[in-house]
């Protein structure tokens, strides 16, 4: 799931009117004239138009509330080769005749950084190609850095997300998947131990944030397509105290990741999730972040 902060919202795709486009062009011309005639230190910056969260809704540059009708794309993205069968015509069918205008597009850390410090440029290029298809079809995208049961080392138990190198191979070797329900594998000492190692390691968290930054850098030309990003799907607390996890660990982690992404794409909306304890019906204790969505 994804939300602007922690509320579930839907958004309606609306093309900017010619009047709005002309208004932005006029602003750009006015800014150029002011810059030429005034002292540099007295010139106020002209805001870059974009989408934002205001009054409980995602809004377009004219301030109109937007409604997304979309779908998840897709479960096959969780494992190599990290893309499903969809091509340009499939994106076109989403828009018409299906009437969709958005997708939650799954990516994974393992796809971006398969080896420590090595970033898969071919994957990033293929990701950009799919953003081209979305743009041509009139589809908005929210990027979701997905994970289940920590990562690929626990694939036999439904794991995806983190690359193998991020945890001790001994944990993978001793892991015995639960035969009844895949989500019960979160409770194993091996899976919980890998989460604990991740949350407790500034180095691993920095690698995760850098993977996100590489995605944002590669997709720099798609601000009209990518509405924003979900830093992590259903974050799990490991052995940390469930009631303190969001305040002590998850909130600061989001601050790190969003800062890295915003270095490259300052206008992307952060659709942050509560901890996966919310799936159990527990109220979230996630505090409002210091970063905004304007």
Short summary of the structure?
The chain has helices at residues 18-37, 88-95, 109-112, 121-137, 169-174, 189-200, 202-218, 245-264; strands at 52-54, 57-59, 70-73, 102-107, 140-145, 226-230, 269-270.
Q: What is the count of β-strands?
A: 7
Helix content: 25-40%
Give the uncertain stretches in residue-range form: 1-47
Biggest β-sheet strands, sense, barrel:
5 strands, parallel
What is the structural class?
Answer: alpha/beta
The neighbouring-strand order within the major sheet is 3-4-5-6-7
Straight-line distance between termini: 21 Å
Shape: globular
H/E topology pattern: HEEEHEHHEHHHEHE
Q: What is the count of DSSP helices, taking H or I runs of 4+ residues?
A: 8
Whole-number mean pLDDT: 86
* Cα Rg: 20 Å
Percentage beta strand:
5-15%
Reconstruct the topology from this structure.
Layout: H1 18-37, E1 52-54, E2 57-59, E3 70-73, H2 88-95, E4 102-107, H3 109-112, H4 121-137, E5 140-145, H5 169-174, H6 189-200, H7 202-218, E6 226-230, H8 245-264, E7 269-270
Helix pairs in contact: 2-4, 7-8
């Amino acid at each position: 799931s994804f939300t602007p902060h922690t509320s579930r919202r839907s958004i309606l795709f609306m093309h900017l009117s010619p009047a709005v486009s002309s208004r932005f062009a006029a602003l750009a011309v006015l800014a150029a004239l002011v810059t030429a005639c005034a002292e540099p230190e007295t010139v106020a910056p002209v805001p870059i138009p974009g989408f934002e969260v205001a009054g409980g809704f995602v809004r377009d540059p004219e301030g109109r509330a937007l409604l997304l009708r979309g779908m998840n794309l897709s479960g096959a993205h969780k494992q190599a080769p990290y893309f499903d069968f969809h091509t340009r015509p499939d994106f076109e069918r989403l828009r018409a005749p299906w009437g969709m205008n958005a997708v939650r597009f799954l990516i994974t850390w393992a796809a971006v950084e398969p080896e420590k410090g090595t970033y898969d440029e071919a994957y990033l290029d293929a990701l950009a190609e799919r953003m081209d298809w979305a743009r041509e079809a009139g589809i908005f995208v929210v990027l979701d850095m997905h994970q289940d049961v920590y990562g690929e080392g626990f694939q036999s138990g439904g794991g995806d997300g983190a690359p193998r190198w991020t945890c001790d191979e001994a944990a993978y070797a001793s892991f015995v998947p639960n035969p009844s329900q895949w989500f019960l594998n979160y409770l194993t000492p091996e899976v919980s131990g890998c989460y604990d190692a991740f949350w407790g390691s500034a180095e691993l968290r920095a690698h995760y944030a850098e993977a996100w930054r590489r995605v944002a850098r590669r997709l720099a030309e798609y601000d009209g397509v990518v509405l924003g990003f979900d830093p992590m799907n259903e974050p799990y607390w490991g052995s940390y105290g469930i009631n303190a996890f969001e305040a002590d660990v998850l909130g600061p982690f989001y601050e790190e990741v969003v800062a890295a992404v915003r270095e490259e794409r300052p206008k992307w909306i952060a659709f942050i999730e509560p901890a996966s304890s919310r799936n159990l019906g527990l109220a979230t204790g996630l505090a409002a972040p210091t970063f905004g969505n304007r």
